[in-house]
Amino acid sequence: MTFRATILTLYPEMFPGPLGHSLAGRALREDRWGLETVQIRDFATDKHRSVDDTPAGGGAGMVLRADVLAAAVDSVADDRPVLAMTPRGRPLTQPRVREIAAGPGVTILCGRFEGFDERLFDARGIEQVSIGDYILSGGEMGALVLLDACVRLLPGVMGAASSGVEESFESGLLEYPQYTRPAEWEGRTIPEVLRSGDHAKIAKWRHARACEDTRSRRPDLWERHEGVRVGRPLARGDD
Prior knowledge:
With 239 residues, this protein is α/β, with parallel strands linked by helices. 31% of the residues lie in helices and 18% in strands. Strands 2-1-6-5-7 form a five-stranded parallel sheet. Helix 1 (22-29) links the parallel strand 1 (3-9) and strand 2 (33-39). 24% of the residues are buried. This is tRNA (guanine-N(1)-)-methyltransferase. One of its GO terms (cellular component) is cytosol. Homodimer. Residues 4-223 form the tRNA methyltransferase TRMD/TRM10-type domain.
């Protein structure tokens, strides 16, 4: 089964973009995954091909119309989940990425302007997703991020099957720091334990550093990790 991605966008020329290069690009050329774009404007019904209108209740900007977007979504509806990239969505997590990557693919709806008419989400089973607490010009960059995160997990894309196992977020912790040659650079040396050849000590050091860095840099992740580790019930919204 080939992982298939369909992008609903006003700017199909933005794809595959960076996904046409490196590991994702090679996998795309090898048909390990598939990508198609759908121009949302093709589903407009007036002579101006309008996809947006002024906000109900007043305000700046324009809002994407529910009727046009629903027609676009319905045109590609199948067994794949439909995700809308929006800062109002739930944060994208590595566990969710793994779930998506394990499935048949994904349809991604890219927002623009002031966002979506909320009735679209009331009427269709669309998952709202955010890639961070900041605002982009549109959902296309978010879609690229989401797809890159998924594609690298597909079978045969990364060089080694274990390549992604110890990365940040896979265990609920940030990844431990990495080093390579030269052994000394600008007076700074690789930690002695990493040159010891003692794999047990190396594993212990790496875990300790992962815990230390997560605790200091991402206390939110550390609290979640500790809660899961000791069996504390997660707060609502953590799952």
